[in-house]
Amino acid sequence: MQHFINVILPIPLEKLFTYRISEIESNHLEPGMRVAVPFGKSKIYTALVYEIHTTAPEVYEAKEIHRILDDAPVVNTLQLQHWRWIADYYMCTLGEVFRSALPSAFLLESETLILKNEQGEIDGDKLEDDEFLVYEALQHQSMLRVDEVGAIVDRKNVLPILNRLIEKQVILLKDEIYEQYKPKLVRFVKLGEAYRSEAKLEELLESLTRAPKQSQVVLSLFQLEARDRKPVKITDLEQYSGGSKAVIKALVDKGILEEYRIQIDRVTYDGLGGNFDLKTLNAYQEKALADIQKSFTANKVSLLHGVTSSGKTEVYVKLIEECINSGKQALYLLPEIALTTQLISRLQDYFGEKIAVYHSKYSIHERVEVWNNVLAKKPKAQIVIGARSSLFLPYSDLGLIIIDEEHEGSFKQFDPAPRYHARDAAIVLAKLHRANTVLGSATPSIESYYNAQNGKYGYAGIDRRFGNVLMPEMELVDLKEQTRKRKMKGHFSERLLEEIAETLENGEQAILFQNRRGFAPIVECTTCGHSPQCPNCDVSLTYHQHRKQLRCHYCGHHLALPEKCEACGSPTLDTKGFGTEQVEQELKNLFPKAKVGRMDLDTTRGKYGYEKIITAFEQQELDVLVGTQMLTKGLDFRNVNLVGIMNADSLLNFPDYRAHERSFQLLTQVAGRAGRTKKRGKVIIQSYNPYHQILKQVSTNDYVGMYQEQLYEREQFLYPPKNRIIKITFKHKNYNTLNDAAEWFAKALRNVFVTGILGPEYPPVARIRNQYIKNVIIKIPLRQSLPQMKNSIKRIENSFNAVSQFRSVRVIYNVDHI
Length: 818
Prior knowledge:
Arc Repressor Mutant, subunit A; 26 helices
């Protein structure tokens, strides 16, 4: 009887692929194990075993697998079920979920090696110059890598050369698989076996009297062992004894010291941990905790709606404690990496080294270690804190998922596929594990609040700040009036400057929010009106002053700031609009003694970028922090008394049905950073339209009013939560092909669905990276079957791909587009 396996390949193909295995291999293999398989002419991929069976494929001859890569599954069955749901719901392939879920180090890569063909008869005179260089290099080396060939011939694309050499039978190609993950080994040292008896030790110390440096190293080793009672690292011994590497090496060579290596995790926790008692909850927190537990008994997701600084984290900590005491794992999801840095130290005070952290700023090696710790259910990974990717870790026994700041748009993955929403995917994951779920926010998304109002979710509210601190005092400043009376200094109104001066005088800190990075979004010639545009995208280039360059925020294209206008040659260049860099510079000019910091994508690029800025601000090394929306997400600064919002209008006038909801959330969240301890904070909102309904609702903290108004509008225009939405994006480098393709697809959709099809329409930025973009939006009533709709769309796509001229058009699905 023949045995076969169906595997998931990390490529965007709909089907599973079947490979042949032996009976011995079928006894060893289990779903969730990795195998290396040949695919195509010369590629080898890391595939994941999905199922084992005895049915041969009908259409093609099954190939044999290349080799088995695991002794035990690295992905469990619940994960595979979750992946299948993500692939079905978000209209992508299992391969795309597989590639996104696993750390890239698990996806072993095959590297093509170039070998000399010993059988072929080679005439060196018939080879071209570049071919001869490769041939000559193979006379001296047994094999070459592709990048080495590129260096030899000084060309990036070496495939044509290699193809010609294969035709002339000069070379052979071979695929070598290599593992990307390398465990971290640390060098330790101990006394050699021969010198462990007292007599031998005495003899040794006497013989070393003539070598004082070596003697000092040996004595230091004893002192470190006695002091720490744990193995001694070579680096520690070197530092403590003052001896050089050469002295220690000489002792190792003589056999006096013995060197050995121990594998350790790259991310370790050094604090004491677990020494802090959990804070006692106040009456409002206790009530919220009881309401959440009541929802859990009814098997409902619970929404915790607590105003900013109401102490939601303390409620989460209580829930986590209950969860891990029952022997289960807990997952704490956050929208931003910036938040994890502050939260980790808080939770480590309570739970010590039971916490593992997982997000994209970690290296691939660190991510593999966290994955293995969660898979093995190690004590150091009972609580996982992470951004949306931590959903994919191999949990075997989840008891609780907390989704903090659940309203955040960052929970939605935009590119590449799977374009999933971490909040919704986490709720499904919790159902698979029979775990409890808590959604927390001071400004819940309209969908979540709607579900709580309709009884689908449980609801718990905290409407008072911790310690009964008053909500910050809000003040709206009319920029139109201030400009007319000439009271503006740069982009600062008189009121905001007064408040900043008073805050600095009192030794308190301030936050200024401007949701645009760079110095200015537009550089314009005042003579002819020309402004430099990105050659690859339909956007103007943003001016970054610290680098003296213009940059595109979509594709990264950049160029030095021109000295004169490219169109008319006039030197009259001026900037329009302003970003965080300009606010920072103006502040430094207005308050030369104040220490000003900036927090945006440009200043937080490094692995510890967030941590450095947040720590400096917490320890009051900075007086004012200027930043983009990174500042708004649940950060807890004790000494901030003032928050200034530089321009609220840029948020309100965005072409999106969620613009008003997002503006309310963002402004309320950033306002919530003020006055979090004893003194009431102050918030100054600058706007050209201070009478806007949303700004009124923010200043009175009227969430319910905003919710009712937005729900009414969405009901009128058929948007979520009253309807579902699928956005289909078409991309192509040719403008006319894209237009024809999008029109064809939209027409086919209208034939099937009749109503609810919007578009095709160009988005505000209609070309990115030389690809034109067009969107179609499908509105689906709640009563209609979503799987049937998706099947119909997929059938239309199959017909669409059968038209030869449309085959090169990329079709991207975004389910529950936000």
